[in-house]
Each structure stands twice: as structure tokens, then as C-alpha cells.
């Protein structure tokens, strides 16, 4: 019995020690509770620098994580999209979604002058129930930019401004990328560092006003950051999303 107790104590200590995990490789990913945390340094060779992402903790459907990056050169090229991907909030038809509550609070713990980066949701729709982000199965990529610093722009061109959705005002950009269409909702001014919203309001707007078919399937919800140049430490104090049908 004493041995069992010791073993339990030892395992708990191990769990504690292992609870903050950092990944550094170009395509490293680690399990993060209800999510998967990935580095995704897809554009790193356009410039020079490095990036590391740390899973700090998980709590039910919420996660706390941090990504530190420093990138130089090619100021118009995205270097990466370190992100948290929900493992199961996917596979439902848009028309069957009733609510998709999300809460994300984040901050730049450190930030060099003049960074070029966004802090964004990246959400994927497709014709098939299965299908992962940014693949031949993708029909639409929906970005929601809570921050865009340094004069960076989304894919395509701006088609609307002053759009009120989920309690904030957005500019809407659209254009093609690979085999899918991109819609980017860009916060009209400043940043939203404490975002609490129903993502279904964005989905319903796209169905009602932008011709997206309600038969499309939600294939992935990711949140993260696209750095171009500069250095920063971006801390997500808490992120959660769920999708109800
Ligand atoms: C990331 O940057 C923060 C702020 O400087 C620091 O506290 C943390 O230790 C860094 N993490 C890694 C993995 O370097
Ligand atoms: C990332 O980690 C590597 C070592 O693992 C380190 O050399 C590099 O400076 C780190 N980058 C940042 C931006 O913290
Ligand atoms: C961030 O969200 C978490 C969970 O909702 C909350 O406990 C924390 O106080 C929030 N932090 C800030 C700065 O709003």
C-alpha cells in the first residue's frame, strides 16, 4: 500500500513537471486537452528566425498557451501559424449549428517595436464531413482577426466595412487562395484582447449574405498568430470554443 502511495505521488509529480511542454520544430504538435497545439512554421524559410510554443495548462475545454517568435526579412511573408486546433468541434453541417460559443483572452507579454502580425481564428469549411484545414477538402477559410499590427492585409481585397457582428465592428476581406475562398473579418480599429462571442453569428452572416451553402461542413477551428516580422511573446491566458447542434 505504501509502495502504491509512493507510486501515485511520483506520477503526480511527473505530471506537474511535464505540464508545461515546449515545442520547437517546424511541424511539431502536442496534445493539449481538448485541443492539439502545433507550431506550423510553414513559411519559416522565407526569412530568418525562430519560434517556440508552450502548452502551459489545460482545464476541461480551456487551454493556456504561449508562443515566442522572432522573425526577420521578407516583411510581407507570413512565417508561421502556431495554433491550437479543437480535436472534436468539427464535422457538423453549418445549417445544424445552433451556437458556437468561444472565449479568448490573450496579451503580448513582450513585443518589439513595429511588429507585423495578426492574432486570429482560422476556421475551415468543406463539402465533406471529414477533411482537415488547408487541404483539397477545403472550400472556405474564415479568418477572424482580433489584432492586425504593422499594416498587414488579409488575402484578397476589402469588400465591406462597418459590419457589426458579435458585438464588434469588422472590415470584410475576400479572395481566393489555392482551391478555397477566404473570408477575413478584420477588427475595424484597435485590438480585442478579451473576446467573448458566438461564432455562429459569423457563420450565419456568411450563409445569409455571402452565398456560403448551409450544407457546408465545419472542418476545423484553429486559433493562433501569423507573424511576419519582429519579436513577441504572445500569451493566451484562456481559450475555449465549443459547437452545439
Ligand atoms: C517566452 O517568453 C516569455 C516572456 O519573455 C518567457 O517568460 C518564457 O520563458 C519564454 N518561453 C520560452 C519557451 O522561451
Ligand atoms: C526557441 O528555442 C531555441 C532552442 O530550443 C532557441 O535557440 C531560440 O532562441 C528560441 N526562440 C525564441 C523566439 O524564443
Ligand atoms: C481570462 O479568462 C479566464 C477564464 O475565463 C479568466 O479566469 C481570467 O480572469 C481572464 N483574464 C483576463 C485578464 O480577463
Automatic annotation (TrEMBL):
GO biological process, one term: polysaccharide catabolic process
Keyword check for Signal: yes
One Gene Ontology MF term: cellulase activity
InterPro entries: ConA-like_dom_sf, GH11/12, GH12
Name of a matching Pfam family: Glyco_hydro_12
Signal sequence coordinates: 1-19
Taxonomic superkingdom: Eukaryota
Record keywords, A-Z: Carbohydrate metabolism, Glycosidase, Hydrolase, Polysaccharide degradation, Signal
Record's keyword annotation contains Hydrolase: yes
Family: Belongs to the glycosyl hydrolase 12 (cellulase H) family.
Protein name stated in the entry: Glycoside hydrolase family 12 protein
Organism name: Phanerochaete sordida
Amino acid at each position: 500500500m505504501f509502495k502504491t502511495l509512493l507510486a501515485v505521488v511520483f506520477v503526480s509529480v511527473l505530471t506537474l513537471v511535464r505540464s508545461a511542454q515546449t515545442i520547437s520544430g517546424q511541424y511539431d504538435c502536442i496534445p493539449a486537452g481538448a485541443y492539439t497545439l502545433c507550431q506550423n512554421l510553414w513559411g519559416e524559410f522565407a526569412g530568418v528566425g525562430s519560434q517556440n510554443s508552450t502548452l502551459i495548462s489545460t482545464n476541461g475545454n480551456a487551454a493556456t498557451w504561449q508562443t515566442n517568435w522572432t522573425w526577420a526579412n521578407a516583411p510581407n511573408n507570413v512565417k508561421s501559424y502556431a495554433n491550437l486546433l479543437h480535436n472534436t468541434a468539427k464535422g457538423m453541417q453549418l445549417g445544424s449549428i445552433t451556437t458556437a460559443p468561444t472565449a479568448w483572452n490573450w496579451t503580448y507579454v513582450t513585443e518589439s517595436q513595429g511588429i507585423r502580425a495578426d492574432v486570429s481564428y482560422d476556421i475551415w469549411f468543406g463539402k465533406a464531413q471529414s477533411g482537415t484545414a488547408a487541404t483539397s477538402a477545403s472550400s472556405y477559410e474564415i479568418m477572424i482577426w482580433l489584432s492586425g499590427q504593422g499594416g498587414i492585409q488579409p488575402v484578397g481585397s476589402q469588400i465591406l466595412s462597418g459590419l457589426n457582428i458579435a458585438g464588434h465592428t469588422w472590415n470584410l476581406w475576400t479572395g481566393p487562395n489555392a482551391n478555397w475562398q477566404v473570408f477575413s473579418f478584420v477588427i475595424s480599429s484597435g485590438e480585442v484582447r478579451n473576446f467573448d462571442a458566438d461564432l455562429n453569428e459569423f457563420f450565419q452572416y456568411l450563409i445569409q449574405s455571402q452565398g456560403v451553402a448551409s450544407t457546408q461542413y465545419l472542418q476545423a477551428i484553429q486559433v493562433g498568430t501569423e507573424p511576419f516580422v519582429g519579436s513577441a511573446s504572445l500569451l493566451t491566458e484562456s481559450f475555449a470554443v465549443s459547437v452545439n447542434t
